Amino acid sequence: MMSGDGDRDRILGCTNLDLERYFTILLGSTTNRLYFSEPVVLYTDNGFLVKVDTKDICQLGTVDDLPEIIIHKDVRMNSNHLTNLPIPTLPHKAASKLYVDATPQKILHKYVPNLRSSGAVKNNKFGFIVTASSYLNNNFYPVYAFNVLYKPRNNGGRWSTNGVTSYFWIQI
Description:
The chain is mainly beta. The chain folds into two domains: 11-74, no CATH class; 107-172, no CATH class. It contains one helix and eight strands. The strands form three sheets. It has a four-stranded antiparallel beta sheet with strand order 3-4-5-6, with no helix packed on it. A two-stranded antiparallel ribbon has the order 1-2. Mean pLDDT is 75; it is low at 121-125.
């Protein structure tokens, strides 16, 4: 127990942590402790803020949201894992691999993008190739059977063979 009466500040610790020297504050046992091998300042106003020198490292709890944990630096996992992630409800929340693998992707209905270069970008291949046994003319390419977005004039996104009425095919 330490008294907070009198002066405004109570300093606990040591100011000369040289190499291979440590400072420990026991919190009930040697397992539960604050252990310092470098000078570290812990602030407890509005949560529990950990700083190294003048840089914020992490904060447990804030004035606005006490159960929140704020990390101010990159998190290095050292080949460990994030586990027990909930299903994300906002775009910036993390998702598990299982969630990503099992979630159907949004696609444009009846849209198969062409596999070709685009504008000034060369060899920018994005999409699929649609071929067919034949097509009537340039207004009825096989890709138009799927791509209403690329339909020329008013053909309604249709594909037509070049007079073939049996054993014709279309493939993606």
